[in-house]
Each structure stands twice: as structure tokens, then as C-alpha cells.
Amino acid sequence: MKKFLLSTALAVGVGGAASAENIGVSMALFDDNFLTVLRNGMQEYAAGLDGVTLQIEDAQNDVGRQLNQIQNFVALGVDAIIVNPVDTDATVAMSNLAAQAGIPLVYVNRQPVNLDDLPEGQAFVASDELESGTLQTQEICRLLREEGKDSGARAVVMMGELSNQAARIRTQDIHDVIATDECSFIEIVEQQTAMWSRTQGADLMTNWLSAGVQFDAVISNNDEMAIGAIQALKTSGIAMDDVIVGGIDATADALAAMAAGDLDVTVFQNAAGQGEGAVDAALRLARGEEVDSKVYVPFELVTPENLADYR
């Protein structure tokens, strides 16, 4: 897997800590492939630093639980807090809790609703979602043209959790690309959420197929839903050569699906790099150092042609 250097103030890693530093981490959900890679990235990076301890909690996709975890971190007097938000619309309250306690806070991966108004001592580490769905849909558009389907192609869209800013932006990216002259031949015939889930992606695709929905492409907000769609398509006896399927994240399972000829497009999001960047930012803020409020790790398009670079 490729590794990327952050092109911001975080490009140079922090050195060993002079004294013990404890970071409280609240993850939206442990039971998620992408977030597991992100969490592991944090843990592996912190393990290489002297005196740095992570206390990682699972919010189990519950906003109230996550707010309680942040309150507990404040009560414990941690040196910094990292949050992967359950609901990105709830981040104002999280920011206020940390700011009132004078504890630095770093959001990771999921864009807080108050991104442009973060208090001093707070930052956001992720990848720019304007790139993700754009790269994905542009490539699907190119593939449809290549197959001669540029005079009325039909697509279905699988959305992530709508309380998540990434799902909303990735979906808007799809519509923005289709609105361009080059890709305006694509018609979205169905668009529903499958909650980032492989199982729900399979169920949604099964429902569409049972309802007789006809389509040439599946555009999914993430790889897990795309893999679920692939499973349902294959179960229904549909040849994968007959439909273009695209996801986002370039997870290990997605790369395996691409190698098998089932997944046509994904977009690499460096989960481990985001995790490392979040710990780095939290430590810098805890030490009173300056950190950019927005730290972006680039997305990259992954296709069968460059698959070997990412496996």
C-alpha cells in the first residue's frame, strides 16, 4: 500500500514525548473495515512514540454515547481528544465541551459541521471529499463512454449514512459530474442509503433487482456497499461484465474484488495516514504548537490498470 506525506504543517512527524501524554479517542464505530484501518493507524503510530498513550472508545454509532465519552475524557483531564464523529451535525456541542475545558480536539475522517468555525486549538484531518465522488464518477463516465453507452446510460446510487457529511458530499459530487456536458448522458434512476454497510448494500440491490430496475452502473459512496451490490448481482446471475461498479476507500476487500474482475473503480483514501495525522495534530496542539485547521491527505483513483500499486 502506498504511503503519503502530509503536505501541511504535519509533514514532519513529532518526536518522542518529553513526558507522558494521554489522548482520548472516540471512534464512531469499531465494526467498520475502513475505520478499523484508521484506528490501527493511530495505534501503530502512537506505539512508536515514547510516553504517548491512546484511550480508544467505541461510540457504537450512538451520538449520546459519544458525547458521554468526550465528557469522560474531559473529566479525566486527557491532554487531547480525537473524535471520529457519529453524526457530523453534532460536532458543535463536542467542540464546545473541549474548548470550555481547554483541551485540544482533532476531528478525523468525518467533516464536522462547524469546520469553518472551529475554536482555537481544534483541527480536522481527513481527505477532501470533493475529490472522492468526483474521481469515482468521472471514471465511471469514461468507462460507460468506452463501452458505447454514451446515449442514455442509467445508474443507481448507493449512499452512506445521511447524517454523515461524507455521504452528502460524495453524493453531491456524483450529481455535479453528471451535470457536466461530458457526462450528462447518465441518468440516475434510483438513489437510496445503505448505511455504509455491505449487508444493507446487498439487500438494497436485491430490492432494486426484484423491482425490475434497469441500470448500467452502480455508483456507491463506499466499497462496502459496492461489495454488497456485487454479491447480490452475482447471486441473481448477472454477469459482472454487464455492469460497471464503483466504490470509494480502496479497502483490502475492494482491491480483492477488483483483482477478481468484479469492481471496476475505487478511490484510495489513506485511512492509516489520516490516523497518523490525527495523532500528530493532537500532540502538536497539546504542546502549544501551531497546526493548520484543515489537513488533507489526497484521494487517488484506483483502477485495474494501477491496482498493483495499491495491493
TrEMBL record:
UniProt-recorded Gene Ontology molecular function terms: carbohydrate binding
Domain Periplasmic binding protein: 23-290
Alphabetized InterPro entries for the sequence: Peripla_BP_I, SBP_2_dom
Signal sequence bounds: 1-20
GO cellular component terms, semicolon-separated: cell envelope
Domain of life per record: Bacteria
Cellular location(s): Cell envelope
Keywords: Signal
Classification via PANTHER family: D-ALLOSE-BINDING PERIPLASMIC PROTEIN-RELATED
Family according to the record: Belongs to the bacterial solute-binding protein 2 family.
Name of this protein: Sugar ABC transporter substrate-binding protein
Organism (species): Paracoccus siganidrum
